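User:
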Amino acid sequence: MSDGSARRAARHARAQLELGQTKDAAWLALHSIELDEEEPLGWALLARVVLDATEDPLATVATRYALSLGVPDPERALVERMHRIDLWTRGLLDHKDRASLLPLSAFDDGAAFSESARFAPWLDEQMAGFEDERGCARAVFRMVAAFADAYVVPETDDNPLHAEGWRPTDVYAAWVDGDPVSNLGDAPAPANDDADDRVQLLSDYRIEQEILELGAQGSFQLARERAELWTKLRPTKVKPLAMQIRVLHAGQWEEARDAAVRALLGLECRDLNDLEDARVALGELGLWEAQLQILERMDRLAPGHPVILANRGVAKMQLGEVEAGASDLEAALDADPDCGPALANLGLHRMREDEYVAARALLERAVKVAPDQAQVRVYLAACKNNQGDRAGAVVELESALELDPHHAQAQQLMEELLARGPVN
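Assistant: Predicted structure:
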């Protein structure tokens, strides 16, 4: 607005955020956008609130949008620095030194950074469903409005960020009606933002890539040192510890690996995405008892979720709890008849029980649900072959090898089938 109310509200929001008064900052930042939807500092602060709370990537896009509108001085340099840190940590910016640890001052030099090859597809992925950067920023506005009890979240079976019916809460509406900006003077200047080189920042993406590259080269001792550093720098995070477990397993440090598994199970984590990282790592290494503990925790957080039930069923079967595992797979299909993992694994179980008719029906549904999964087609090929349908099995294997030309199991089974002679 021409009277500067939106900018004044945004600057007071920034001051409140510096004092740790997040809710006050959120209300002021929301109101700054209500006063002027083109207020860049308001958008930048809303993004900051979300990034501090959840690290949601939509807030990264919203910061980019704010900068495109022209965040004013003196705040612009700080917003630019924080945005570079955010993008670099996500592996979306490359620094000229290619280091995984950088001093804070390195982020004042925008010329030292360039967009990585991941940046453009990542940005497209985040904007899918939100049309453009402005749409992502509007979603961030709604996130903050919900966090700060400023707006009533509409009831919907879909993503509420897309839903109609958002409206101010009575308390927030009364606050706005009181014209909270009119009596505000000038906000205090931003806190000293001089970069302190004692502060070292870590790119989780970059250090993960370093560890993977060292592992691929067989340099397990160096990979272990980097993984242990990552875990030390991120002591409460799942992903570094999961990577450390992978490295210790690959280097055959079993005692250290088991200690790391115990540490992983001891983490106080309630984030399903983080727990999924742990589940995948433990499953890759065949550590089924530990994986089952992770899955039990996931089930407590999201009871009856079909994918969790399906994965728990597989883990139980791997531990010899065949009937309990099959029961979980059936429960997953009761919750979602198109649950691909449940269809495939229950089909495999039925085949092992010599129930080929039931197995084939399940596996054909699994292929229909997940046509791009080569392994499912291999299961179906094995089932058809056991039913005497060699030609049908070959067709499934051909499809599997189109999807994954190096699929060893598909190659081996194809060779066995073709060795028997021509296929009619």
